[in-house]
Design brief:
Layout lengths: L4 H13 L4 H11 E8 L4 E3 L1 H14 L3 E5 L4 E3 L2 E10 L6 E10 L2 E9 L4
Parallel strand pairs: 1-7
Antiparallel strand pairs: 1-2, 3-5, 4-5, 5-6, 6-7
């Protein structure tokens, strides 16, 4: 798969992190994440598609009914990109915002670093 970086970031936000159906989510993970990918957020560092899937499933269990929104357009440079996002109840204002920074290898996400915005 050779999606450009902006497309990978957008698909990841909505088809992976925003997807509550485990079958559709896993299909997207297999399409856009490298097998040996690394996902790092403030809670942990995880390696591999199974670990990404488990982390997202845990997020949905912890915050049922929450959805992701893109806050602006993704930006990319050679081999890397970033996308700001919000997370909160469907139809409501985001209760958390953050930034995903992805490193891409051979058209797939090789590493994703998620930064959370701290409350003011």
């Amino acid at each position: 798969m050779t999606d450009d970086i902006a497309t990978l970031l957008t698909r990841n936000l909505f088809e992976v992190f925003g997807e509550t159906d485990p079958v559709r989510r896993r299909t997207a993970i297999d399409q856009i994440w490298a097998e040996d990918a690394v996902f790092v957020d403030p809670q942990a560092s995880r390696m591999g598609r199974d670990a990404v899937d488990a982390a997202v499933a845990g997020l949905h269990a912890r915050f049922p009914g929450f959805v992701f929104t893109a806050l602006g357009a993704p930006q990319s440079l050679e081999g890397a990109g970033r996308l700001a996002w919000g997370h909160g109840p469907a139809g409501g204002a985001p209760q958390l915002t953050g930034l995903d920074v992805a490193l891409v290898r051979e058209g797939r996400i090789a590493a994703l670093y998620t930064f959370l915005d701290l409350p003011a």
